[in-house]
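Quick one: examine this chain and its backbone structure tokens and tell me how the chain folds. Here goes:
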Amino acid sequence: MPTKQKIGQAARIIVKDVLALKKGEQFLIITNPDGDVAAISRALYDAALAEGAEATIVFQPEKTQLDYANRAALAAFNANPAACASVSANKMGKDSLGMEKPWTAANGRKIDHIFHYQMDELKTLRAIWTPGITIDMFRRTAGIDYPLLQRRCRAICRAMENALSIRVTAPGGTDIVVPVEGRTPMSDDGDFAEGGSGGNIPAGEVFISPLPGKSEGVIVFDGSLSLTDKDIISKKPVTVVFENGYITSISGGREAELLQKSLEAGEQKAKEFAAAGKLTAEEGESYARNARGLGELGIGLNPAARIKGNMLEDEKAFHTCHFAIGSNYDNDAEAMIHLDCLVRNPTIEVTKLDGSKVVIERQGILEPQFENPVDN
């Protein structure tokens, strides 16, 4: 099958089965003008038109997670689209207006990006985001068995509910205990048909936010690393020590040096924002401190994903888990960065509040009840 046809087929699956676009709905695509992301965006645009949706593509230059999005690009959200696809070579970018005048959620939380305000608070928007996606990745990983993925995600989420802590060990040297009491596991399962839902394409992970300031142990990143400006495969493993939930040491050669520089960039950006009045002094200190915090534990569940040095795909690969350094998804430990880093062949054991234990995967292999789950 020609590549263009394969892209079109994957785009139709995303539009019809993942986002469930309907006739007359506004569909906003924010992307960059060059390379694979432009071709994928056009395929999504064409697929949306075929469903009768009103599709719009907005181009902006490539952004990193420390850059601002173009204001005119984010202004398109003022049309209140029903669905959005952020198809970026790197990131959508931060919302400069939102950071200057954040929205206040019903629970009092500050929201500094219009995308998150519409999706997470108003729940009028459903979305996919694909930072760093390639044509090869899109055609291989987008057209998977979503019902099976969703059953696996539900089974693993149930295992992680009412958990006290999660211990992760791996042959590379990882041994860390992650406290999660009171946390709710989340999934990127490709079911984004309702307002307020969204996730990556490729989909395929269950993840949870560690309690801030609690994790203890060592993580050895032997898969790949996210930096502020790119992703890299770990040629030499990077050893990171956590005490009281924060990094106390990083070692491992050139890759470790690059990770250290990315953390320092996250700290520096927080200080710059505080100096410019975009964060209070207290917020600036908190954001800088959280650049060295443990923000996420995730489990890869997309059978078509491979470790390629692109974290969008890498973190979804079977036989892996990933930890993020920086912001968490419960929004109680915010930072300027969120750097996912990969561990190969983990053993993941959940300790429940009642003291019982559940092994989700052992040396990278899902336990049978999670490999072939049956919904109750």
Observations:
- The mean pLDDT is 97.
